[in-house]
Write a structure and sequence with these properties.
By secondary structure, the protein is of the alpha+beta class. Among the domains are: 173 residues, Glycosyltransferase; 60 residues; 123 residues, Sandwich (Jelly Rolls), CATH 2.60.120. It is built from 16 helices and 38 strands. It has a 6-stranded mixed beta sheet with strand order 5-21-22-24-23-20. Strands 25, 26, 27, 28 and 29 form a 5-stranded antiparallel beta sheet that branches. Strands 30, 32, 35, 36 and 38 form a 5-stranded antiparallel beta sheet that branches.
């Protein structure tokens, strides 16, 4: 009977890898052997790694699968340290911390890396060290005068990486709560989580939330090397990023709001819980309204500050949207099914950039593959489940460690292509890649959920690899054992639980095969998007403006498609501010990223001492920004984005308060902008109050890598003219 069963499984999984004692890939052979004591030796043409027996164990037909699980544990042990260091903190001196480091080349703790790794399962295997790391990334405020709400002492997770001086250009620090939610059994830690969550959500609501779109501003989570995934011109101009909205960052805020509601329930605070749930529901609706692109059947990675759509997608954002429940039903299924794959795995962004080196661009990141695996399990897409499992396994096997990332087409750890070579940076035992393999084993194969339930969703294509001639496979953890048993017959594409029995700490699941609708992996997508054109040129011409473009382009006016021109065209005079950008569309219908905006229209410049005064010539809505320069740090890092609150008092109107962000800059440029209303003939007075930036946090007293750290908090920029422009009726500008 077993042989018949396996014959059927083999037939159903033609082309699936039978990775028992090794694998072959692009001319490279990897072999693995194990002895009776469960020590493993992994060998490939350029190296060998001996992996000692580990406390946790899988027993399958694949020595490769089992050995890589042992290797992940060994990698995690090497990442478990008593001290950390980074050249930008305490002058590179060791900092005591029973923590996880980020990887071999990254001996520090970063909010984003740690939080995603914990969420992928490290909370289960070392909760104490997970909590220690999270607590290290939590800080109080060191400047008593800093605006921080009514509470006498606030806690915030740190935005420790990002563009242009960090938060609120990058606003994904709320990922901290994604990891923290698993570790609330410790009462003291749970209290800190609750306190930090309330403070952080209130602060982000004040400085990063836009009421017009109902979305949070800020950079994509994890994809923070600007020109890799944003237009090339953002390399030295990040105000656009601060003004824009990212799918992943908004989904993280949705999850944080859901957690806040749950914690309020635990305090029996029904009113507060209802408020958070209302905010979460509104945010979910806004995400689906603004990021869903029906013609692609996917969620866009980000949109411009005026709502301009960008024909670009990222796997982490889509996977998080599915896993969180922001994307549900048919949209969830479509979004993952339509996201392209290549034989080696799934790229973290699509389409790729032909003018950028390999890093986020044209790359596979195992931790993102693990989130895609979660999404595939939730939407029950067997081909995608198998694809992500195989990709994570293959990468770890090829290089004898859980690497940070891989080139997309070859799954190489480095590909020499001149100035486009990469991945530009790569590190062995990268923490979230280690966590990805743990997730492959515990969630992807054995179906172990956060709540302890065992709900396998195992593609039948993986039966030959995992079961071989076996009837059962086993996962041995410290506190429990999980055994999966094959059914008598396999007729379907997915193995799920049929019967589950538990005796003591041992759970046995008898599987059954079911046939679920499964979209084939999308393998027909073009690799590259067109390169973005130059900004359109505008000059006054009769009753409007003459448009000059770099060849045939698609034009967008104030965030909306305006039509196509080839070389030149005409724009009729517009009421209010008119901002044009251009894209290029290729033969596949793929659209490039946008050029910079070219804006025309009346702009008042108001200088002088504060408060400054201005009189509205007509009633309506206005856009306001500041000309400024901020040379307190580089474009790609730092903690000294200048954050202010512009207070506007117009005669006959209520006071209006607008957050203004002035990122690090290389020249004088406009800040982020906001929208205010004024009556015709009303005189408005403008004052500039202090806002909040990361330099105000106590943790950054140890920052020695730039301004705003050990030399004292800094939240300043050279402020020049106040820029005021009327907005057209119906303009989407917040």
């Amino acid at each position: 009977m077993l042989s018949l069963l396996l014959t059927a499984a083999m037939a159903a999984s033609a082309g699936a890898p039978a990775w028992h004692d090794g694998l072959d890939w692009h001319g490279v052979h990897v072999a693995i052997s194990r002895d009776a004591q469960h020590n493993y030796t992994l060998a490939w043409p350029y190296g060998e790694r001996v992996i000692a027996a580990q406390p946790l164990r899988t027993e399958t037909a694949s020595a490769l699968f089992d050995g890589l699980f042992a290797m992940a544990q060994d990698d995690l042990a090497l990442d478990s340290v008593s001290a950390i260091r980074d050249g930008a903190f305490d002058h590179g001196q060791p900092i005591p911390c029973q923590c996880f480091v980020t990887g071999l080349k990254w001996p520090y703790v970063w909010t984003r890396d740690l939080s995603y790794a914990i969420d992928l399962g490290l909370w289960r295997f070392d909760p104490a060290r997970s909590r220690n790391g999270l607590k290290f990334k939590l800080s109080d405020v060191r400047v008593p005068s800093a605006p921080q709400g009514s509470a006498p002492k606030r806690l915030y997770p740190m935005q420790d990486t990002g563009s242009g001086g960090s938060w609120p250009i990058s606003t994904d620090r709320v990922v901290w709560f994604l990891g923290a939610r698993h570790l609330l059994g410790d009462k003291a830690f749970a209290g800190d989580v609750d306190k930090a969550l309330g403070a952080t959500l209130a602060q982000d609501r004040q400085y990063a939330f836009d009421t017009t779109f109902g979305l949070y501003r800020g950079e994509t989570s994890f994809l923070d090397w600007r020109e890799q995934s944003y237009p090339a011109w953002t390399a030295d101009e990040v105000t656009f990023i601060a003004q824009s909205y990212a799918l992943s960052t908004n989904v993280l805020h949705y999850q944080a709001l859901q957690l806040a509601a749950t914690l309020a329930d635990g305090r029996h605070d029904a009113k507060t819980a209802a408020g958070y749930r209302s905010q979460a529901a509104a945010l979910k609706s806004a995400i689906n309204a603004h990021f869903w692109r029906a013609d692609r059947g996917m969620y866009m990675s980000y949109i411009g500050g005026d709502g301009t759509p960008y024909d670009t997608y990222d796997l982490l954002g889509i996977a998080l949207a599915i896993d969180s429940g922001v994307a549900d039903g048919e949209r969830a299924r479509q979004a993952l099914a339509n996201y392209p794959t290549w034989p080696a795995g799934s790229p973290v962004i699509w389409p790729e950039r032909s003018d950028q080196p390999i890093y986020h661009n044209r790359a596979i990141w195992p931790f993102v593959s693990a989130y895609a695996l979660r999404a595939a399990r939730k939407t029950e897409q067997p081909a995608r489940i198998a694809h992500e499992i195989e990709s994570v396994m293959r990468g770890a096997a090829l290089y004898g460690s859980n690497m940070e990332n891989y080139e997309l087409l070859t799954q190489g750890q480095h590909v020499d292509e001149g100035k486009l070579s990469g991945p530009v940076v790569n590190s062995p035992r990268q923490l979230w890649s280690v966590a990805a393999y743990f997730a492959v084993v515990t969630e992807g194969v054995f179906g172990l959920g956060e709540d302890g339930r065992v709900e396998p969703k195992l593609p039948t294509s993986l039966v030959p690899m995992l079961f071989g001639q076996r009837r059962a496979i086993t996962l041995d953890l410290r506190d429990r054992q999980i055994t999966l048993q094959l059914p008598e017959k396999i007729a379907g594409n997915l193995l799920v639980a049929d019967r589950t029995s538990t005796r003591g700490t041992a759970t046995t699941v008898t599987l059954k095969a079911v046939q679920v609708p499964d979209a084939p992996l999308r393998t027909d997508a073009p690799l590259y998007a067109p390169v973005a054109p130059a900004a359109p040129l505008l000059r006054a011409d009769g009753d409007g403006w003459k448009i000059t473009t770099d060849g045939k382009v698609r034009l967008y006016l104030n965030g909306q498609v305006h039509g196509s021109v080839d070389g030149d065209g005409h724009l009729a005079r517009q009421p209010g501010l008119a901002c044009l950008s251009a894209t290029r569309v290729d033969a596949h219908g793929l659209e490039s990223l946008h050029s910079p905006d070219t804006c025309v229209g009346e702009v008042a410049k108001v200088a002088g001492n504060w408060p400054r005064s201005w009189t509205a010539s007509a009633g309506g809505s206005y856009r306001v920004a500041l000309d400024y320069a901020n040379d307190h740090g580089p474009i790609n890092t730092g903690i000294t984005a200048a954050v202010k609150m512009l207070v506007i008092r117009c005669a006959g109107s209520d006071e209006q308060r607008l957050p203004i962000v002035m990122p690090h800059s290389v020249r004088t440029q406009p800040s982020t902008w906001g929208r205010f209303d004024a009556r015709a003939g009303a005189t408005c007075r403008f004052t500039l109050d202090d806002g909040f930036n990361m330099s105000y946090l106590g943790h950054f007293a140890h920052y020695t890598g730039g301004s705003g750290g050990s030399d004292g908090a800094l939240n300043q920029a050279d402020v020049h003219a106040l820029l005021i422009a009327p907005l057209a009726t119906g303009h989407a500008t917040p």
